[in-house]
Design a protein that fits this description.
Length: 365
């Protein structure tokens, strides 16, 4: 098709009509001139009855392709009654899809768009309705407009393209203040270290983020004096024994000195219910809140849309890992004559330019 026709194009009027695009398709032409092919019902071949037949005119479990709905005849010379019946079954299914499902899905889409058309992105990156109510604190949980996120899937080929076209892309994407991926990449590396089940003491260093317990009263870590839950904190000093630390809590900026990593309670449980262990962990490695949702990091300097350092940890981690371990990306960076930090700045600038603009129709996107 169409070279195998008895009357070739353009003398074949049917082929002329299809080839020029006036009416019909290659499938229609092949069904008329060649064969109808395999008939499908709900994505499968024609099902068999409990007797093992597709139609009473076939033998039980007939292995012939015709018995399973394959039509080797064509409309030009006519089809057999059994094949015509199979074709009617497949055509009826398509008719139902056209007449019922299309109209219902179209009306459903219209209803959704009607309810979503009032949603818009505010200057504080929240998605709000017509009355000012918050629908989403951050559009899509990352603030990125899908229509602008062409190079943020972080694949090797995409990062190579960005490295090779560094100069032109740098002029295209306007970078925000403090443009870097270092902060987000550091958080991503910290999360991977914790997931790798490394030793707790290896992850507790000065300046590292931790989850710590907090005292309700007093200065002694004992049973009944601890607040419920964990609190974000930063290690300010590591003592010589490596098991005690000075920490500063993120909220309130209160400090606790010489906090042990673990403590053993003298009395654990009760007379009726004995505790499984008297050992209580007071400090454990932690990861800071995501940059995209943390408004207090470094005094509020890393806010979405205001700082170029506010980048998704997944994007920053993938870019940093590719720049250090992917041979093709490293070769592209070297051929472009740029450093890894310059490449990371380009990724951060691209992320900042892909954010939803204030006033954008969040529902329509």
């Amino acid at each position: 098709m169409p070279n195998g026709l008895a009357v070739p194009f353009p003398a074949n009027t049917f082929g002329l009509m299809v080839t020029t695009g006036a009416k019909g398709s290659t499938v229609n032409q092949s069904q008329v001139s060649c064969a109808l092919g395999q008939q499908a019902l709900e994505g499968r071949r024609v099902p068999r009855m409990s007797s093992g037949r597709t139609l009473p005119s076939f033998m039980p479990y007939d292995p012939n392709p015709r018995a399973d709905g394959f039509i080797a005849d064509r409309f030009l010379t006519g089809v057999r009654p059994q094949e015509y019946y199979f074709h009617c079954m497949a055509g009826r299914e398509g008719l139902v899809d056209t007449a019922v499902k299309t109209s219902r899905s179209g009306y459903l889409q219209r209803c959704l768009i009607k309810h979503l058309e009032e949603l818009k992105v505010g200057y504080d990156s929240t998605v709000r309705d017509g009355e000012g109510g918050v629908v989403q604190f951050l559009y899509g949980e990352d603030g990125v407009d899908p229509t602008k996120a062409a190079h943020l899937e972080c694949s090797s080929s995409t990062l190579q393209y960005m490295a090779r076209n560094h100069d032109s892309l740098k002029r295209r994407y306007m970078s925000l203040p403090n443009n870097t991926i270092d902060v987000a990449a550091r958080d991503d590396a910290r999360a991977k270290e914790i997931q790798s089940n490394a030793s707790t003491f290896d992850l507790l260093k000065k300046g590292s983020h931790v989850k710590a317990r907090k005292l309700r009263f007093g200065s002694t870590w004992k049973r009944g004096a601890l607040c419920h839950g964990w609190f974000d904190a930063v290690i300010t000093k590591e003592h010589s024994d490596g098991k005690h630390f000075d920490i500063e809590y993120t909220i309130g900026k209160s400090k606790a000195r010489k906090v042990p990593v673990e403590v053993v309670f003298q009395y654990a449980g009760s007379r009726r219910t004995r505790a499984a262990s008297a050992l209580c962990t007071l400090i454990k490695p932690g990861v800071p809140d995501p940059l995209l949702s943390d408004l207090t990091r470094d005094g509020g300097r890393h806010r979405l849309g205001q700082s170029g350092a506010c980048v998704s940890e997944r994007v920053a981690g993938a870019a940093r890992e590719a720049a250090s371990s992917d041979a093709k990306v490293k070769e592209a960076i070297e051929s472009a004559g740029i450093s890894s930090s310059q490449f990371g700045d380009l990724v951060a600038a691209k992320y900042g330019s892909a954010l939803c603009a204030p006033g954008g129709a969040g529902g329509g996107i």
